[in-house]
């Protein structure tokens, strides 16, 4: 079902866990499949310096979380918001059609974490 890139990303995820005293946290879920994804961010000077995830879900959800956190590290908040689910799928070299929603969760979790940070900053 999954390609080698997805399986390798899933098996070797290094951004698991959560950032203590995170600047922004976004939690999203998909009720139809039961996947829940949380991304926490450490932000300095409007740039993401660290990102971690906690995901309850399948290999595609975990691989999407890992890919998304890797993609946003070092980016400004606005640059991170430009990352879409199709970008995650491309880096993973494809996902089965029934698993595309996992990449959508990653996009939504990034946006939710950035919104949480901005809300805390009063922006």
Please identify the top-level CATH class.
Answer: Alpha Beta
Distance between the termini: 43 Å
Shape: globular
**Class derived from helix and strand content:** alpha+beta
Find the count of extended strands (DSSP E, 2+ residues): 3
Contiguous helical run count: 5
What about the largest sheet? 3 strands, antiparallel
Helix fraction by DSSP (H/I, runs of at least 4): 40-55%
Domain module count: 1
CATH topology: Sufe protein. Chain: A
Secondary-structure element order, N to C: HEEEHHHH
What radius of gyration results from the CA coordinates? 13 Å
Low-confidence stretches: none
CATH architecture verdict: Alpha-Beta Complex
Mean pLDDT: 96
Please give the order of strands in the largest beta sheet. Answer: 1-2-3
Approximate strand percentage: 15-25%
Précis, in short:
The protein is an alpha+beta fold and 123 residues long.
Explain this structure to me?
By secondary structure, the protein is α+β, with helices and mostly antiparallel strands. It has one domain (4-117): Sufe protein. Chain: A, CATH 3.90.1010. It is 46% helix and 22% strand. The chain is built from five helices and three strands. It has helices spanning 4-11, 59-72, 77-81, 85-91, 100-121; strands at residues 24-30, 35-44, 47-56. Strands 1-2-3 form a three-stranded antiparallel beta sheet. A hairpin with a 2-residue loop joins strand 2 (35-44) and strand 3 (47-56). Helix 2 crosses helix 5 (100-121). The radius of gyration is 13 Å and the shape is globular.
């Amino acid at each position: 079902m999954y390609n080698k890139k997805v399986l390798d990303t899933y098996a070797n995820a290094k951004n698991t866990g959560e950032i203590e005293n995170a600047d922004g946290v976004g939690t999203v879920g998909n009720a139809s499949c039961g996947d829940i994804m949380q991304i926490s961010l450490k932000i300095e000077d409007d740039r993401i310096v660290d990102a971690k995830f906690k995901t309850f879900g399948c290999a595609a959800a975990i691989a999407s979380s890992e890919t998304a956190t890797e993609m946003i590290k070092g980016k400004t908040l606005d640059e991170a918001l430009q990352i879409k689910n199709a970008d995650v799928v491309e880096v993973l070299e494809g996902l089965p059609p029934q698993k595309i929603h996992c990449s959508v969760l990653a996009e939504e979790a990034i946006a939710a974490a950035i919104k949480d940070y901005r809300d805390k900053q009063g922006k």
